[in-house]
Design goal:
982 residues, mainly alpha, 6 strands, 69% helix
């Protein structure tokens, strides 16, 4: 089962790749995967009927005891057969339905197969946490399938509605699952059901689980999303909304009901909401004129019926529920596929525009008739067997004195009357001959013959609905293995003749009353589309969504005032309030204070304080930045004197790079702080700043004296050498012991670099009409046109020669930037010194990179040193010198660095090891001696490249690009003034 699950994932990628060359025929390839899973499940049935269980398991997250475990029992086999069998037939149907269409097929075919795989995993997994993951995955994939026609607003709206509703239920389900796992002590579904926990916390967890079930299976009050989802292509409706997605909630209900149905909140919620859903859906199905919406509300009604029977929790109800699940998947998929044929051939589903199709398409009419008969519970279909068994189970429970048995029986009987009525309405609407108000027959709708094989899938499904009804006892053998897990004795059976039992008379009564109700609805014009109530659940949904949108806009307008002082002040106030509350709530304060730990601190601390105070009083922006950097350099002194040379080295480099970045930005701002930028409320700012300082000082003093146990850091030196094979504790911790943290920080650096570049760089098109014309070009020509119309991100140096170059073969200039700068902006000494020292600094950065595992340094420090070398080249020669020093793309450096870091983390998993497990290579070289190379060094190289890419991106965006924009803005008035002279 696990290999098949993996095959679904791989197959979805293969299908998406083959969709463009194969077109709609790719669905034949896609159908092979669920067909293989169907055959596998079918081969396991004999063993399962004999009491066996097929199980596979693999460890996934050891710390949480979460396993990729698959378990196929009777219920799992039934659901797997439905998901894979119906899925294979629907995909074969898609090959004809999408014939001649190519737009969107790669995504649609891949997502449809991935959805089938997610459902396959959901119904077979034995881990409750993994089930929730598959649960959410089906919601996401269904969103993509429902919104296939993404250019239509209705499709986008319906897809989002289904996603938000089912995802909300999924989040509530997750909370309930966490509570069940915490109380039950295991994530295994079979283990949890074998030894079920009890108590008030479990009842609360079950309520949360039921919320997830109701939202997924479109049970009131979450029923509104399913009719809206009919905006999806018909094959999606036939699969997701008849056999797959909506069955996820029913499956979980069936899995838990035999054990938890006796819990206090279970039956009141399941039976009351299920019956209400059955009745609401049935009434609305009688008033719809769109064939697909008739089936949609009929599906809502049937899901309520199944939820009542499956969730009742007795042995006979479980048997009937299993049969209902299978019968519903067969007859409802058949009907949706029949509607798909009508829609594709006639481009309409309106029953007022269809007349006389029964005589023109008799095969399709008979197929639909068999499906409707199964839905209405008419012999000898499978629906009849399931309905009889359900009525028998409810009657026995009612006669035994169960209140909920009587409620369920009466509600199911009324809902069955509605089922028969809207079933007849569907047949009449799709195939009957309509008459005008004066009694004259309407013209017969012209029926073009569908493509060969278009009816193959619905015919097979209808034949199964009929054939399984004839072999009920054999089907009962499989379902009995599941039904016996629920309490109660066996009274109901899946047979065509029970004798003159009460269930038979109730069933016959619902059929007769249903036919009468259809006639009355036509006679009284009740079937005219309209609202029974002044509002619907969908209206409430959109009202809530609009309210949330307006509230978010109001909150944004109130909080996002466009004032940086307000933002910073808010952060500081929250810090003071939260941490101050913690300090005041503490029972006792212990502080271990020393006047100083090193004499240098006596000199460094006052300088830092004085610099901070003067920075607040500074009137020039750059002066303030330099004074703030003084405090950072003071930290360098403190780190160096406290035995942290790595931190001192990194801090001084960070301060230097930060100072350069500030200097680049300040070029676009006024040099002096004007009245607008000054402190409008200096007293308030001083109070907030002082409060923050006092709060942080108290936190630090109390935190240093709060330790009562031996810190784990005392063992880090030994761990760094024994585990990480390095003597530099800081570097080994960054690239080995806490490598995941560093990888997250690298991701933040990449995002920051990308954000800075996107804010500064502007892409210019040569002409709007040319841009529109390029969309019609082939893809290669379009890419070339786009490249030609973009502004280059790197200043090229091709053709830059000395000014006195007289011939074509004269050498290129050594000082590239110097040839481009204005004479008053040049410093020959600086240019020469920088060019001489550049390569030496790069060598030093590489030394820091490789020495950092045992000595101060590492990839971060080495990258900053290399970045400072690039800064020097830029300062000396401008953007042209930077282009000569680093002609590549910063994005490539960032990407390669991340690939190296992630690859180092993932590579051990290919050998069955944990991520970031290091490998060590040792060798004795003749001259060098004994050397060691640790694989975490490759991770450090990734860090090195990411840091260089970040600095280069900052220089190119805040430096080179700003230089270019300044020059263009300066040249613009001159061009304007001389334009007329030309």
């Amino acid at each position: 089962m696990l290999p098949l699950l993996c095959a679904f994932g791989i197959g979805s990628l293969i299908t998406a790749l083959l969709a463009r060359p194969l077109g709609a025929r790719v669905f034949f390839v896609a159908a092979a995967f669920p067909l293989a899973a169907f055959v596998h499940a079918l081969l396991q049935v004999p063993a399962i009927v004999g009491g066996g269980i097929v199980a596979e398991s693999a460890v996934w997250i050891t710390a949480l005891d979460i396993r990729l475990s698959m378990r196929m029992d009777a219920l799992g086999a039934l659901m797997a057969l439905i998901v894979t069998g119906v899925g294979a037939l629907v995909m074969i149907y898609c090959a004809v339905y999408f014939r001649g269409k190519r737009d969107g097929l790669p995504l649609f075919s891949g997502v449809l197969l991935a959805f089938a795989g997610a459902m396959y995993g959901l119904v077979l997994t034995d881990d409750l946490v993994v089930l929730v993951m598959f649960w959410e995955l089906t919601s996401i994939l269904s969103y993509l399938l429902i919104g296939f026609y993404h250019l239509r607003a209705a499709s986008r709206r319906a897809a989002l509605q289904a996603l938000l509703t089912t995802t909300l239920g999924g989040l509530v389900l997750l909370v309930g699952v966490v509570m069940l796992v915490a109380t039950g002590g295991t994530t295994s579904i079979s283990g949890l059901l074998a030894d079920p926990p009890t108590g008030g916390l479990v009842d609360a967890a079950l309520v949360l689980v039921l919320v997830g079930v109701l939202s997924k299976s479109a049970i009131f009050p979450f029923h509104f999303w399913l009719p809206g989802a009919m905006a999806a292509p018909t094959p999606v409706s036939a699969y997701l909304h008849a056999a797959a997605m909506v069955k996820a909630g029913i499956y979980l209900l069936a899995r838990f009901a035999p054990v938890f149905a006796e819990a206090g909140p279970w039956r009141p919620i399941v039976i009351s909401l299920g019956l209400l859903t059955m009745l609401l859906g049935g009434v609305q199905a009688l008033r719809e004129h769109d064939l697909k919406r008739i089936l949609a509300f009929g599906t809502v009604s049937q899901l309520g019926f199944i939820a009542v029977v499956v969730g009742f929790g007795t042995r006979d109800a479980a048997l009937a529920g299993g049969a209902l699940i299978l019968a519903h998947a067969l007859f409802k998929s058949t009907l949706f596929l029949v509607v798909g044929v009508i829609d594709r051939q006639l481009s309409t589903r309106d029953i007022d525009q269809l007349s006389g199709l029964a005589r023109q398409a008799p095969t399709m009419a008979v197929t639909a008739l068999v499906a409707v008969a199964s839905m209405a519970g008419i012999a000898p279909t499978l629906g009849f067997l399931a309905k009889e068994a359900a009525l028998t189970a409810l009657i026995d429970e009612a006669l035994a004195g169960g209140v909920w048995g009587w409620i369920a029986l009466v509600g199911v009987a009324l809902g069955s009357v509605l089922t028969v009525a809207y079933g007849i309405r569907f047949l009449w609407g799709a195939f009957g001959t309509k008459r005008d108000r004066d009694g004259q027959p309407r013209p017969t709708t012209h029926w073009p013959d569908p493509p060969l094989g278009f009816l193959a899938a619905p015919i097979v499904l209808a034949a199964l609905a009929l054939g399984l009804g004839l072999i009920g006892p054999q089907l009962e053998m499989l379902l009995t293995a599941y039904a016996d897990t629920a309490p109660g004795t066996a009274h109901a059976h899946l047979v065509l003749w029970h004798g003159l039992q009460p269930a038979l008379f109730v069933s016959l009564g619902t059929i007769v009353l249903g036919a009468l109700l259809f006639w009355l609805a036509r006679a009284t014009a009740f079937d005219i589309t309209g609202r029974i109530m002044p509002f619907t659940a969908s209206d409430l949904y959109f009202l809530v969504v609009r309210g949330i949108d307006r509230l978010s806009v109001a909150v944004t307008r109130f909080t996002q005032r466009g004032s940086l002082p307000i933002y910073v002040g808010t952060v500081f106030l929250v810090l003071i309030a939260s941490q101050g509350t913690v300090l005041l709530a503490g029972r006792e304060w212990r502080a271990a204070l020393d006047a100083w730990q090193h004499p240098v601190q006596i000199a460094a601390a006052p300088i830092m304080i004085i610099a901070g105070v003067i920075a607040v009083m500074a009137r020039k922006r750059y002066t303030g930045v330099v004074l703030v950097s003084v405090t950072g350099l003071g930290m360098v002194v403190l780190f160096a004197t406290m035995g942290a040379p790595d931190l001192a080295l990194t801090q001084v480099l960070v301060e230097a790079v930060t100072l350069v970045a500030f200097a680049l930005v300040l070029r676009r701002l006024p040099s002096r702080l004007g009245a607008h930028s000054g402190s409008s409320r200096p007293v308030l700012r001083a109070v907030i700043g002082g409060a923050v300082g006092v709060t942080m000082a108290l936190l630090v003093m109390i935190a240093t004296g709060a330790r009562v146990a031996e810190p784990i850091s005392t063992d880090w030196a030994a761990m760094a050498y024994e585990i990480g094979h390095g003597r530099n504790v800081v570097n080994v911790a960054l690239v080995d012991l806490r490598g995941w943290d560093t990888m997250g920080e690298l991701s933040v650096l990449v995002l920051a670099a990308t954000g800075v570049a996107s804010l500064v760089f502007v892409t210019h098109r040569t002409d709007n009409s040319l841009a529109r014309l390029s969309r019609r070009l082939p893809i290669k020509s379009r890419i070339a046109a786009n490249r030609a119309s973009r502004r280059p991100l790197v200043e090229t140096t091709e053709g830059v020669r000395p000014q006195n170059a007289g011939n074509r073969n004269s050498p290129r200039a050594w000082l590239v930037g110097g040839q481009k700068l204005q004479s008053e902006s040049r410093s020959i000494i600086l240019e020469v010194v920088v060019r001489i020292l550049f390569h030496t600094i790069i060598v030093v950065s590489i030394y820091l990179l490789f020495a950092g595992h045992n000595l101060p340094g590492g990839g971060f420090a080495g990258g900053l040193v290399a970045g400072m070398a690039l800064v020097m080249r830029y300062v000396a020669g401008g953007r042209w010198e930077l282009g000569a020093a680093a002609p590549g793309d910063a994005g490539q450096l960032l990407g390669v660095g991340m690939i190296l870091a992630v690859g180092t983390a993932v590579a051990p998993m290919l050998f069955g090891l944990d991520p970031l497990t290091r490998a060590v290579w040792e060798a004795d070289l003749p001259v060098v001696g004994h050397i060691e190379f640790v694989s975490s060094t490759i991770f450090d190289i990734g860090v090195y490249l990411v840091v260089i890419g970040l600095v280069l991106d900052v220089l190119r965006s805040l430096g080179a690009e700003v230089d270019k924009q300044l020059k263009e803005s300066a040249d613009q008035p001159f061009r304007a003034s001389t334009g007329g002279a030309r």
